[in-house]
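Dear support,

I submitted the protein below through the web form. The confirmation email said the job was done, but the results page showed an empty box. After a refresh the structure appeared. I'm attaching both so you can tell me whether what I see now is the final result or a partial one.
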Amino acid sequence: MMKNTLKVVLLTSMLPFAASAAEGMTPWYVGGGLGVNNYEPNCDQKTMKVCGEDDPYAWDVFGGYLFNDYFGVELGYRDLGRAEWTDYSNKLNDVGARGMNLGLVAFYPFADKWSLSAEAGAMNYLISNKKQWNTEYYSDSGVAPYVGAGIGYNFTDNLKLAAKYRRYENLDEEKWNTLSMESNYWGLELSYRFGSAAPTAVAAPVVAVAADVDSDNDGVVDRLDKCPNTPSDHKVDATGCTVYEMATTKHDLGGLLFANNSAVINQSSYADIEKLANYMKKNPEHTVIIEGHASNVGKPAYNMTLSERRANSVAQVLENKYGISSNRIKSVGYGITKPIAQGNTPEAHKQNRRIEAIVTGTEKRAVLK
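What the results page shows now:
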């Protein structure tokens, strides 16, 4: 029997997310920082025999993206500076680490222009030890986790200065097993957020006019409404009339079954073909694809030809008996390639010996609110 199932194809568009200065602040920002870094173990912990002259000054550059006013992600590059010491084997160590970092940041505004921050992430570091005035050189790379906290002050909507503390773990040189360190960083960073704050909208005074009544509540007053009593869920134009769109639709009008090794249409199927023909006459802009199928019995090449004959037989009835123009009908055979029932059973073979009719076209449809 013909299945009267309506399948509507929804056509939607994707608008890329983009912010501009005219729309307000963007989620993107860039910045850089300077500070001092203290590797552990270090001289302050008295684990080294003799301390050298450190170059503890660290720096970083970064870019960030804010998911909202409280949460974002940062990508950057950091140089943690260098430190020198003489170990108990009387060898000078000259150690430093640098590399890319990726982390999550969270912000908590607690006063006008002030905010707290917390961060966590990982640094893909390269650590080097220029031992004995670079006569011995050891280096390795790895991933070191870090956490941090800070306090920031916004000079403007774009410009922010923040004091930062970060703790790095597992800054290890494991290739030669010469270093196993942690690190503490203190510094200042300056960041710039792109865009500009949207100007405050000033509401225009509303002048009430007693005669301006909107009887059908469509947003257009009666004196301008050319289409009174429009449905409340319809989108309307400036004159109060329903806005329409052309929507692409697809109608699956079901399947016709055939006897084994036959392209002859059963008499019981003509009623379904007549329903299809009547629909085509009521919708002259629509077209139909007649798809023929076969059961998986016999040779595939023969079944392909048989499925084409079945499709052609239905197409000829539509054209010759019901007067549907041939340029609105397309017939195609799929053989055994698209079964709707699996298995090698009589019932499965019966279901797969079929015709399916797919009608396509466009319909005028009201745009809803």
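Response: this is the final, complete result; the empty box was a page-load delay. Helices lie at 131-134, 270-282, 300-320, 346-352.
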